[in-house]
Amino acid sequence: MHAFSFHNPCQIEFGAGQIAKLGSLIPVQARVLVLYGGGSIKRNGAYEQISSALQQHHWQEFSGIEPNPEFETLMRAVQFARKHALDYIVAVGGGSVIDGAKFVAAAVPHDGDCWLIIGNRTPLKTALPLAAVLTLPATGSESNFAAVISRRESNDKLSFKNPLVFPKLAILDPTLTFSLPARQIGNGVVDAFVHTLEQYLTYPNEARVQDRLAEGILQTLIEIGPVTLNEPDNYDARANLMWAANQALYGLVGLGQAQDWATHAMGHELTMLFGLDHARTLAIVLPALWRYRFAAKQAKLAQYGRRVWALTGDDATVAAAAIEATSQFFAQMGLSARLGDYGIDAQEAADGVAAQLIRHQRLKLGENQDLTPDDCRAILLTAA
Ligand code: NZQ
Ligand code: ZN
Question: Has UniProt tagged this entry with the keyword Oxidoreductase (predicted)?
Answer without folding.
Answer: yes
